[in-house]
Amino acid sequence: MMSTRSKMSTKHKFVADGCFYAELNELLTRELAEDGYAGVEVRTTPHRTNIIVRATRTQNVLGEKGQRIRELTSVVQKRFNFDDGAVELYAERVLNRGLCAQAQAESLKYKLLGGLAVRRACYGVVRFVMEASAKGCEVVVSGKLRGQRAKAMKFGDGYMIKTGHAGQVYTDTAVRHVLLRQGVIGIKVSIFLPQDPQGLVGPKIPLDDVVTILEPKEEPNPEVLIQQQQAAEAARIAAVQAAMAQAAAAAPVEAAADAGY
Q: Which of 91, 98, 155, 163 is within CB 3.0–4.6 Å of 61 for a Cys-Cys bond?
């Protein structure tokens, strides 16, 4: 794959990267669904490709003595024609699974597959997300929830921005399909992340409409300012007088030297 990439045009490279990511994400979503799969990141260097798999249960992803991660590495290597040692898979633990939309969508999917009532399962996810310090959460479930007629139910709490730059940066969204006996049910989980200056649990940049009011500075006492100005003026005058006295003391010596004494 790396040898063919060097012969591609720039446009074909972008398309190939997008297809590679989509197929890899689909493979890992199906394979690691029960292990809290929460996304994948591909980092490409000139010599090798590192694939970081994010999950809530990294020990299950690694497997016993790292066997499962080696099997996944072998599958990816053979499918995409990587050279030996040119691709490496790593597992990264999700810091806060309550703020990960993909993890919550998978959790809700398995709750519905287990036979839990839709309303109870959705409210449980919303409450868990809000307790994880999220600004807002919305869960949309659509399909044949009860009876033969399909409908959609929406559950939400907190604050949610869906449009603009803030909607792209702050909102984490995941979609899953649940194959039930009566038909397919669609799940969409949206989480509005909190602002984090370190960038660990949320975006670094603050929202546009957030106004931070700083504490006013202490105003100095006018009398103290006047005393400081007077002291500075007195010091300046004293320095000028000292310079003039030094110049006057040096003048007779120079005059005597000119007279030849």
A: 91
pTM equals: 0.71
Closest by CA to 92, choosing from 33, 36, 51, 52, is 52
162-167 LR contacts (CB < 8 Å, sep 24+): 162/190, 165/208, 166/207, 166/208
Asked if residue 261 has pLDDT above 80, the reply is no
- Taken in order 16, 19, 23, 25, is the CA torsion positive or negative? positive
- Judged against a pLDDT cut of 90, whether residue 65 lies above it is answered with no
- Say how far apart CA 38 and CA 61 lie, in whole Å: 12
DSSP-derived secondary structure for 167-217 = HHHHEEEEEEEEEETTEEEEEEEEEEPPP-TTSSSS-SSPPTT--PPPPPP
Q: 54 near 39, Cβ under 8 Å?
A: yes
Find tokens 């005597």 and name the residue: 256
CA distances from 204 to 160, 161, 198, 199, 207 (A): 18, 17, 6, 5, 10
Give the mean pLDDT of the chain.
87
Distance CA 24, CA 200 (A): 25
Q: Cβ(22)–Cβ(28) under 8 Å? A: no
Cα 139 to Cα 86: distance, rounded to the nearest angstrom? 40
Q: Tell me: pLDDT of 192 over 70.
A: yes
3-state secondary structure of 22: helix
